[in-house]
ABC transporter substrate-binding protein
Amino acid sequence: MSRQMSELTRRRLLGSGAAVSAAAIAGCIGGSESDGSDQLHFTQEQSREENFDPVISNDAYSFQVIQLIFDGLYEFDEGLELQPKLATGEPTVERDGTRYIFEIEEAAEFHNGEDVTAEDVAHSFTAPVEEETENASSYNMIESTEVIDDYQLQVDLGEDPYGPFELQTMGVTVVPKSYRTEDRENFNKNPVGAGPFEFSELQENEYVEIEKYDDYWGDLDPNIEQARFVAHDDAAGRISEIRAGNTDVIAGIPNDDWSVLENEEGVTLHSSESPTYMYMAFNCNEGPTTNPEVRRAIAHSFSMSDFIESNGENVTSPMYSPIPPVVNEIWEFPEDEYQDMLPEYDPDQAKSLLDEHAPDDFTPTIITPEGIRAQLAERIATRLDEIGYGADVQVLDFATLVDTYTSGNADDYQMYLLGWTGGPDPDYYLYPLFHESGAGTNQGHYYDGSDGFHEAIAEGRNSAGQEERYEIYEPVIREIVEQLPALPAFTQDNTMASRNHVQDLQAHPNVNRNPTLVADYTNVSLE
């Protein structure tokens, strides 16, 4: 399933991974083009935490391995629509959207030969909460589960429906209860799933290997016999490896390297718009940026579209609200209206508003991680300087950034740049990033909002039906765009580059489903 991932820790999608030395990489990559093997070599853009138990794993790069070893009750297709996998079809929904009855495929088996049963699915739903894992928030709305028989499971929510349940929670990755609970530590490093590939070998901090499972219960028959995952968080190193043919596929193409690889003989580029939300948030807790006119002035001071065109045209897409475009395609919020509401580049208006509403010596502190967001912070500082103000840009490591932006202290910052990756439900973005419960944890903006703002976000979470939830969420999104506690910046694409002997590779919108080696819509092979 799609994991909700913030930037509070290195685990999260857009966090900073631990470095892997070039020497270590050189010893364990090299694809079929160079050595004639039938093994696909995939170079990941950040280091894994090496947690391969889906109950506890909250790391996109470990989950890229997990998604090939395990099957979900439901899984996201290439359009981010949830499709039955271990479930026989859609669940039966009763009790006003608070009871779900699932039927499990009777043919499904784990790699150890045991049947996938309702008890296994129930354990997969409840273990994250019972064991207090980092994934607990994705399942803590479940009040109880009842095994009706070996292949039917009843799941009861609390008194209220949980709106994101059908787009988030019921996509649970299913683990074998008895095998897992026998030795959870061993299971985390030697997992057994029901997917088309089985775990083969782990050399921690070096590589992990999987191989095709010949007795897979489903209809999928992978063309790939084996795959090796190696992490290389140095972008220049990844680019060098794919150009030299020393790996089959790399993930994470920097904007400036896109045109280089586009013109590289023997290399194919792959890209998919992702459900990411990159933003600049304002300190609404204290200081000059508590005034929305100051926030609008800063938004007027630079051109986001010009920045995207010059710094991220190949690997990003513009955003006009906290809902990524790929998610908006499903919900159809009026994105064009939001775009018209956002302040356009107007340095004269920016200066006029700051002269009226900001202190004479206003030089805001912008804290940011390195990379494209630091480039954006520097662009804003330059444009503010041009109208007589300026800004102090502080590029921080993630640990320091987290400790700083959650303080709400105007002495620490007036703006910060971060990102969030979710799934196809607005709740992924609105509740953790704007509901008051996230202040000081996922949020450093501390936005009070209008009367009923936070109540509406909670109501949307506890309502059933997309139409009803649309009507609740639309005014919330409109207020965020108008009042600018956070200015939407861009959504990052999931990008990969492969050697041309890799056939039928596609980039998935969800980063932790890359590479999708086999699915109803693709079957990767080495020619």
